[in-house]
Structure prediction request, 271 residues.
Amino acid sequence: MSKNIPFVPAEDLSKLWRAIIEFAMLAPGDRILIGLSGGKDSMLLTAMLAEIKKFSPIPFDLACYTVNPMFADNFPKQELVNFCAHYGLEHYSDDIDIMAAHAKKGGSPCFTCAYFRRAATNRKAQELGFNKVALAHHNDDAVETFFMNLMTSGQLRTFLPVTPLSRSGITVLRPLLYYREQEIKALVAKLQLKPLKNPCPYDGHTMRQEIKEHILQLDQRYPEVYEHLAAAMRCSDKQELWPAKPADKDMVAKFRSFWQRSAKTQSEVKK
Prediction:
C-alpha cells in the first residue's frame, strides 16, 4: 500500500484519539503489543494503531501477538502474518491448549480461555520487552461487563481504559472503548478487512451473549437504557450509594457500643 493512502481515514480515528488522549495511554518509548485474535475488533484496532503510529507526536513501537487456542487444526498463522506485514508489523504467536486447561481446572470455559489468553499475552510482552498490551474491547463490551457484574455478583464494576498490572509491570490499554460494536462492523466493511472465523466451540452460547441480548431487549423497550448503563460506569458526584458493608467484627463493636450506651442512659435516668 502506498504511504499516501491511509490504513484508516482520519475521520474514523477521532474516537481512538480521544481515548488515547483522555486516558493518557501513550508515553515516549512505549512498546505496545496488540492482542490480535483475528476477529473484527482486533483487526480494526491493528489497522488504527498502525495508522496513528505514523502521526503520533509521541513515538511508540507496535507489534501483534496471537494465542492459538488449539480449537481447530487449521490455525491460520500465515494469514495473520500476512495481515500484520501489510501494516509493517511483526507478528508473534503461541499454541495454548485451552480445552486441556479447562478439563484440568474445571469451572467456566470462557473464564479459563480469557485467563490463559491474558496470561500468555502478558508473558509474551515481558519476554519481548513490550511494556504495554493493547486489547480490542469496545464500548458494548464494557457496558455488557458492567451489567453482567451487577447481575451476577452485585458489583458496580467493569474493565478500565488503562489497567497497570503491578506483578508483571505491563499496562493494559483499551483504545476502542468509545466505539460501539455496530460502528466497528461498519468500519471493518468499509476498510474491507476480512476477519477470521471464530473457532471457539462456545461462540454464541455464552453468558456474555445472553447479557448482550438482554440489554438489546431492554433498549428496545426503553430506548435510553444503553446510554444510562454507559453513563453509570463513570465516577460521578451524582452517585448516591449506600456505604460499604461493614465487616462482622465492626458490626459487633457497633452493637456493643449501642447497647452499652442504652444501659448507661437507663442507669443515669434511675439516679
